[in-house]
Amino acid sequence: MTASVAGVIVAGGRASRMGGRDKAFAAVGGEPIAVRTIRLFHDLFPQVLVATDRPERFRALGVETVADRFPGLGPLAGIHAALLAARHPYAFVAACDMPGLDPHVIRFLLARIGGADAVVPRWEGDVEPLHAVYAARCVPAMETSLRAGRPTLRDFLGTIRVDYVSEAELGRIRGAAASLINVNTPEELAAVGGRFEEPRG
User: Fold this and answer.
1) How far is Cα 90 from Cα 69, in angstroms, rounded to an integer?
2) How far apart are CA 58 and CA 35, in angstroms?
3) Strand order of the sheet with strand 194-195?
4) How far apart are CA 62 and CA 82, in angstroms?
5) Burial, 180: exposed, middle or buried (Cβ in 10 Å; 0-12, 13-18, 19+)?
6) Which of 24, 36, 67, 119 is deepest in the core (most CB within 10 A)?
7) How does pLDDT run across 111-128, given as a tens digit for each residue?
8) Do residues 103 and 39 lie in contact, with contact meaning Cβ atoms separated by under 8 Å?
9) pLDDT tens digits, 134-170
């Protein structure tokens, strides 16, 4: 267990590409993604937080939930709220729709914690700010971005010191490709053998 790091799941968003269905509770391998992620995070971290505007969905899963202080401003607002509630100087942050999160990959990123404000993977020609480590000291910079109406994570990353982990480095870690997959559409969910088992809300 990593004593100085909280585990954060960002479960906001309207899931418009999923027809409004709750991606966190899509089942992969017969288990909702959120349930698997929370179990994994409890094994890794002393505190597990879910940033969500639907706390009732997570009440039975043994996690703390936090609501955005800046509603409607996306994942940056969720990370901000979680860092405010975290009891640790760092947080590993993951999106709620990542069915293959791998502890080896997460530990590799945690081992990179140093002087930077965030540790962010590069993958498939892009960055993955929702499979990354953030320092709690980022909160003031996050508030500045949110108050200024610049809530995109990529814009925010330009305002802090980031240790970008190259795709070549990550590619040497077993499980990296699976860990970095997220499922934004029904097609992506089907590609990992997932499906919605709950009735439509």
Assistant:
1) 19
2) 9
3) 31-32, 27-28, 194-195
4) 16
5) buried
6) 24
7) 999 999 999 999 999 999
8) no
9) 999 999 999 999 999 999 999 999 999 999 999 999 9
With tokens 């077993």, the residue in question is 174
| φ, ψ of residue 83 in degrees (nearest 5) | -65, -35
Q: Does the domain at residues 5-195 carry the CATH identifier 3.30.2010.10? A: no
CB 186 within 8 A of CB 180: no
The CA radius of gyration of the chain, in Å to the nearest whole number, is: 16
H/E segment holding residue 75: helix 75-85
**What's the token pair of residue 79?**
């990370």
pTM: 0.90
Residue with tokens 């508030």: 143
Element (H, E) at 186: helix 186-191
